[in-house]
Amino acid sequence: MDVNMLLESTRESLHQIGIFLPRLLLAIVIVVVGWLVAKAVRFAVVKALRAINFNVLTQKAGIDRFLKQGGADIDTVRVLGSLAFWLVVLAAFMVASNSLDLAHVTDLIERVVLFVPKVMLAVVIIVFGTYFAGFVSSAVTTHLRDTHAVEAALIGRLVLYAIMVFVIMIALDQMNVGDIIRQAFLIIVAAVGLGLAIAFGLGGQKRAGELIERWSRPPDQEEPSTRGPSKPVL
Question: What pTM does this model have?
Answer without folding.
Answer: 0.70
